[in-house]
UniProtKB/TrEMBL annotation:
It comes from Vibrio aquaticus. This is DEAD/DEAH box helicase. Residues 218-383 form the Helicase C-terminal domain. GO terms for cellular component: cytosol. One of its GO terms (molecular function) is nucleic acid binding. InterPro entries: DEAD/DEAH_box_helicase_dom (IPR011545), DEAD/DEAH_RhlB (IPR044742), DEAD_box_RNA_helicase (IPR050079), Helicase_ATP-bd (IPR014001), Helicase_C-like (IPR001650), P-loop_NTPase (IPR027417), RNA-helicase_DEAD-box_CS (IPR000629), RNA_helicase_DEAD_Q_motif (IPR014014). Pfam families: DEAD, Helicase_C. Keywords: ATP-binding, Helicase, Hydrolase, Nucleotide-binding. Transmembrane segments: none annotated. Residues 388-425 are annotated as: Disordered.
Length: 425
């Protein structure tokens, strides 16, 4: 099924052709007709399935069909994303789709100056892509209003909830005076997600392109049991022995990321950082170096688990197992995209066996274990027997996500807002 068959304007079709888009993906085939007819949508779709075009193209076409002059400090459409990287990527994609039109799209997120964002918002915008915290800051300062909003999209909505954005979402919805067409896209679903959908969607059309909480079948999974203190050595060993050239490594803490980059460099392996303490410009440079091959390894916290589009990325390594089993799906979704083969490698110490078991339950498959000679953990068999024989141990819940890395704390946002209000007076 081609994009021309969906009655998109010639300008859009021309731009999509230049982007290399030929046929609609399954999520686009299902979502676009509903969206074109104005329905609210609740979609279950993994990353890498083409969902950005699924929600963006109908909005773009509707804006073209109902042309209006841009109103000062107003947005016709708002797309919310959990991370800076994802917001920037969505905006870039939409700008590619609209290159032959007059549709104005901008992205606002933390890590960049408020003043420069205020300037572009002042003249009005058709499509505004934003992270929740930064959007609220601009709304509180009256830099942007949602009173005339026509379209609202929540992308990676499950990740927003994981990062503690539920209060921010409710604040944003309180500023919406209209009844916009609303679309919610999520890779996983939970009770909290269903509650949110019930509050913000009106008789939504459900779209599902994959069984919930599963990973792409193009990804090969492997687990290396190893003591925590030997993980760094194991990573260097695998990169060197197997000659891995592009490796995205996930850790749970920024401190771990900083230390690991230093250790890898001592081993002659060029590595870069991507976490919440890094300025947006530094994170962008790190990603560019990694994509171009100047850096062999990128060390990231879960702030980078969504939205990173790295073509043909061969390896994702969980140096630390994630705090939540669902985040395993998000992390490894960076590889095995668009039909390409990918490898998900996880290092598991004794304390992480429980999380591994919950990951296997979530994805519906047992992950292949491989012990590397010289790195075998101690007494692992006894721990596994304990886990499988004691229900109380097996049913324990994993820890929650580390909130410090979301970089969107309410106290920090209120403090920054007060400073800006004083500066305006």
């Amino acid at each position: 099924m081609s994009f021309a068959s969906q009655n998109f304007s010639p300008e859009i079709v021309k731009a999509l052709t230049e982007c290399g888009y030929e046929k609609l993906t399954p999520v686009q085939q299902k979502a676009i007709p509903f969206a074109r007819r104005g329905h609210d949508i609740l979609a279950n779709a993994q990353t890498g399935t083409g969902k950005t075009a699924a929600f963006a193209l109908p909005i773009i076409q509707n804006i073209l069909d109902n042309a209006k002059p841009q109103q000062r400090r107003q947005a016709r459409a708002v797309i919310l994303a959990p991370t800076r990287e994802l917001a920037a990527q969505i905006a870039a994609n939409i700008q590619d789709y609209t290159k032959y039109t007059a549709v104005k799209t901008i992205a606002i997120y933390g890590g960049t100056k408020m003043s420069s964002q205020e300037k572009v918002l002042d003249s009005g915008v058709d499509i505004l892509v934003a992270t929740p915290g930064r959007l609220i800051e601009h709304m509180d300062l009256n830099n942007v209003s949602l009173v005339n909003l026509e379209f609202l999209v929540f992308d990676e909505a499950d990740r927003m909830l994981d990062m503690g954005f539920i209060n921010a979402i409710e604040s944003i919805m309180a500023g919406v005076a209209t009844k916009p067409q609303t679309m919610l896209f999520s890779a996983t679903f939970s009770a909290q997600m269903n509650t949110l959908a019930g509050k913000i969607l009106r008789q939504p059309k459900r779209v599902s392109v994959a069984r919930e909480n599963v990973t792409a079948d193009t990804i090969a999974h492997v687990v290396y049991p190893v003591e925590q203190e030997r993980k760094r050595e194991l990573l260097s060993e695998l990169i060197g022995r197997k000659n891995w050239q592009q490796v995205l490594v996930f850790v749970n803490y920024k401190e771990t990321a900083n230390e690991l980059v230093k250790e890898l460099k001592l081993d002659g392996i060029k590595a870069v950082l991507c976490h919440g303490d890094k300025a947006q410009s530094a994170r962008r440079r790190a990603l560019d170096e990694f994509k171009s091959g100047k850096a062999r390894v990128m060390i990231a916290t879960d702030v980078a688990a969504r939205g990173l589009d790295i073509q043909n990325l061969p390896h994702v390594v969980n140096f630390d197992m994630p705090f939540l089993a669902e985040d395993y799906v998000h992390r490894i979704g960076r590889t095995g995209r668009a039909g390409q083969r990918g490898n998900a490698v996880s290092f598991v110490n004794r304390d992480e066996e429980l999380t591994l078991q919950q990951v296997e339950t979530l994805i519906g498959q047992r992950i292949y274990r491989k012990e590397l000679e010289g790195y075998e953990p101690k007494n692992r068999a006894a721990l596994l027997e304990k886990m499988h024989s004691k229900p109380a141990f097996k049913n324990r819940r994993t820890r929650q996500n580390n909130p410090s890395d979301s970089n969107q704390g309410d106290a920090e946002r209120r403090s920054r807002l007060r400073r800006m209000i004083r500066a305006k007076k």
